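Database export, one record per block. Field names are fixed; values are copied verbatim from the stored entry.
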Amino acid sequence: MSVRVADVMTTNVVAVRKYASFKEIAARLRDLRVSAFPVLDDDGAVLGVVSETDLMAKEALPAGYEGHPGPSRLRHRRELEKAAATTAADLMTRPPITIGPYDLVSDAAHLMYDHKVNHLPVVGQNGELLGIISRADVLSVFGRPDKEIRHEIIETVITRHYFTDPGDFTVIVEDGVVTLKGTPENASVGHGIVSEVRHLEGVVAVRDELAYPAAARERQWGEQASW
C-alpha cells in the first residue's frame, strides 16, 4: 500500500489573498488557531506561505534595528523587510514548499523534515491550491493495522516482488515493528526484502532475524577459490 498525499490531506483550507493586510492575517491566525496560511494570487495559485513567524518580526525587531554585516546580512535584510511589511505579499515566505496530491506521504515527510516546516500546501498542475498536509496527517499512516502490514509483506513483498515461497519465512508485526525470520534464497534477496519492508507505510522498525546460508556458502567458496 502506497499512501498518497490526497488520501490524508485536508481539503477545507483557509488561505489569504496576496493583498490581505497585516491586521487581517494576525486576527485570522488568532481566531482560527492556526500557525500559517497559504497566500494566493487572483487565480488561486499558491504564491507563498505566511506564518506567525513572519508576523513576529514587526514586534521582535527593536526600533532603529538595521541588521549586522557579515554572512547573515541577507537574513537580516529579509527581517527588516518583514518588519516593514503590511500585506501578505510582502510578509510571506516564497517560493512556497509544495507537494502534489499524487505524491507519496513519505515524500511529504521528507520535505517537511528537510525544510523544517509543519505544513505543505498541496497544489495541482497549474499551482492551484487543492489542500494542505500537516505533520499530524503524515504521522497518521502509523495507525495502519498490524494485520494489514503483515498481509502486504507476505503477499506483495515476499511473493509478488521477490517470487519467494512465503512458507520459508515467519513474519511478525507488533505495534508496527516487523520481525522477519526464515531463510531467503540468497543474501541479495534477504536484504532486498528487509529494505522494502522498512519503507512500507506504517512500519516503525524492522528486526532482521533472517538466516543467510547461501551468503555464507558464497563466502566460503570465495575463500577456497583464493587458495
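Remark 1: Strands lie at 16-17, 36-40, 46-51, 119-123, 129-134, 169-174, 177-182, 205-210.
Remark 2: The CA atoms of residues 141 and 201 lie 6 Å apart.
End of record.
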